[in-house]
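Weekly structure sync, notes
Attendees: PL, DS, HV (note-taker this week)

Item 1: Amino acid ABC transporter substrate-binding protein
DS walked through the input record. Source organism listed as Salinarimonas ramus. Sequence as pasted into the shared doc:
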Amino acid sequence: MKKALSTIAFGFAATVAFTGVAAAQTTLEQVRERGELICGSNPGLAGFGVPDAQGNWTGFDVDYCRATAAAIFGDPNAVSFIPLSAKDRFTALQAGEIDVLFRNSTSTITRDTSLGLDFPGINYYDGQGFLVSTELGVTSALELDGASVCVQQGTTTELNLADYFRRNNMDYEPVTFAQSVEAVEAYLSGRCDAFTTDASGLASERLRAPTPSDHIILPEIISKEPLGPVVRHGDNQWADIIRWVHYAMLEAEEYGITSENAAELRDTSEAPGIRRILGTEGNFGEMLGLGNDWAFNIISMVGNYGEVFDRNIGEGSPVGLSRGLNALYTDGGLQYGHPIR
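Item 1 (cont.): predicted structure, written out as tokens:
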């Protein structure tokens, strides 16, 4: 009898547990029910995420938010942006205040394992560097012994700074700030000899200077900073969607599919790879819980990876970054879209 009662109790508990799991909405279901994506973004980093005076957001990470909305709704504007500081970004995601974080965030083992978060992909390979005034007269970070360095608190940047000076037996004076903009303004006002953050951020923040050419980025890269979107751990379907949005943009660039020719190629191309990406062959969108035109919508409405890079942070933009490590693997870079097949 005890065995039978235990079996019944176990079955009841399992049923309750299953019902609770079944009742919980996935992130995709919540987004669809709401009718828009809520995206955590940088409060103001030129080229990556910044709103204008009318509240219109632009930037590399912003375009990834729009690409995700395009994949889900067929509308890149079905997204709201929440500006988040480095301190608040992960807490906001954990608390469910945002659906996804696209905010130049570095993937580390601590963040990946102890915060209840996942990094589905790396959309920008970066590394930390130093910005100095040309008046300082240095050409290498190894000449910064005894320098004061402006840095944002509570970031991998602060930890990397300490590691670099310790490793090279140099002294320095850290001048820390809660917000990156405060650190930049302090540097530009002469309170610090140098400012440090990711090299892409240095290129962006240099634009705040009255004369950007009076400031140089030193050649040393002192860390690895794999930057990418962040989602809550445990919702595998949502992580898959964010991951394959990135891969679709990379695959499109490799196949030469752009925002300008996507519609024509969808109607005329007989190339199997192009047909799979654009949804005329296979049911890959359904595998993600999306329509089969998911990737077509991303590319036609937002663009492939190269287009998004070039218009926001590429060499022809005010930020002026070369592709470098973020070139496709076919051009010697690290960006490598996985096959849609």
